[in-house]
Amino acid sequence: MRTPLKIVLVGLPGSGKTTFGKALAKQLNFAFIDLDQVIEQETGNTISQIFEQEGEGRFRELESIYLKKVLEGIEGFILSTGGGTPCFNDNMELINEKGVSVYLDVSLEEIIRRLGKDAFGKRPMFTNLGDGEAILKLKNLLAARENYYMQAKIKLSGDDISTEQLLSELMVFFRN
Fold first, then answer.
1. 3: confidence class by pLDDT, cuts 50, 70, 90
2. Does the residue 174 lie in any domain?
3. Which residues contact 107 (CB under 8 A, 6 or more apart)?
4. How many angstroms separate the Cα of 84 from the Cα of each of 3, 123, 173, 174?
5. Pairwise CA distance, residues 171 & 127, whole Å
């Protein structure tokens, strides 16, 4: 009998953590958990409201609290994290200790295509930024965060990452 895993997806905003995570969870018959949704449900505020009213520092604190809570909970889930989650409060260390981290390494061009004009405006980090500023911000985020993402146990690269690719990589983590 295999032990269910805690699979934690990391990567830039727009890398497909939620979309990919839902598909993978369905394929593995695991629960899908979106960390931002957990934070919103637990606090009663949207991520944007937390950023606006309490600042990024408080958001990162809440993010760490709920990340720890999720990772110490049930087994057999796929967790989609926020793009910055691994980069604060030793979160990547915790993720690697409690689960199998997977970095979705998607090109900036593909992320920009996926996010498009409308999606940039819906994300707190990109609020009130023009297209050029949003693209520059994304490039700066990658430069600042890639060191954390590269600590993931599995790295999947490409603009069309499949669940089959990850399942192949995950086989080593399924234990008898």
1. low
2. no
3. 159
4. 29, 12, 25, 27
5. 40
Fill in the amino acid letter for 158: G
Identify the CATH number of the domain in which residue 112 sits: 3.40.50.300
pTM score, two decimals?
0.89
- The total number of structural domains in the chain stands at 1
CA-nearest of 173, 128, 166 to 11 is 166
CB 80 within 8 A of CB 21: yes
List pLDDT tens digits, range 94-153. 999 999 999 999 998 888 787 775 555 566 677 666 777 878 888 998 999 999 999 999
| Structure-block tokens of residue 130 | 């023009």
Asked if residue 63 is part of any domain, the answer here is yes
- The greatest distance separating any two alpha carbons of the chain, rounded to the nearest whole angstrom, comes to 52
